[in-house]
Amino acid sequence: MALMSGQSVVTAAGPGLLVGRYDHAMDPKKRLTVPAGWRDLMGAPPYVYIIPDPSEKCLNLIPPAEMEGRLETLRKRALFDKKASVSLRVIGENSEQVMLDVQGRIRICDRLLAFAQLSGTVAMIGSMNRIQLWSPALMPVAESIDQAKLAEACEALEF
User: Fold this and answer.
1) How far apart are CA 9 and CA 46, in angstroms?
2) What ranges in the chain are assigned the alpha helix state H?
């Protein structure tokens, strides 16, 4: 492609980072709207995965591209590796794939909502490669930026 002086080509570098916080109310049918900007960053997927966090009382909304990348790693394991089979069964049993409707709403099963104590308003927190869904009662709004906590997080991730 020939470019005129002053023109540039912009290409997508892949999915964007999911950052920020949105507090959204579930509707009367217990549906939650995923913000449009985040849906765009995920590539407007028709579905997402919901997995309980193994160490926090929240749910993780994982985009298909992230999950499929992890699945490639799992495919390298022996099909009948006993430890892997048990682990995959536990994760699979406690997770779900949910469809996004045309308005970007998802309906998470009651069992997972109860685990994370989600009802009414949900704090949706971008965690780079996923979105964490929190009960505001368990994850209150920070009034200011905690620089010590931020520094600790950056150091732990070698960011």
Assistant:
1) 29
2) 36-41, 64-75, 82-93, 110-115, 147-156
pLDDT digits (tens, 9 = 90+) for 59-73: 999 999 999 888 888
Place of tokens 């430890």: 83
Q: Which residue has the tokens 């009034």?
A: 143
Distance, CA of 21 to CA of 37 (rounded, Å): 12
Q: How many CB atoms lie within 10 A of CB 115?
A: 16
Any bridge partners for residue 18, and if so which?
Answer: 128
pLDDT tens digits along 91-135: 999 999 999 999 999 999 999 999 999 999 999 999 999 999 999
Kindly state which CATH superfamily the domain 21-139 is placed in.
Transcriptional regulator MraZ domain (3.40.1550.20)
Strands 59-62 and 131-134: antiparallel
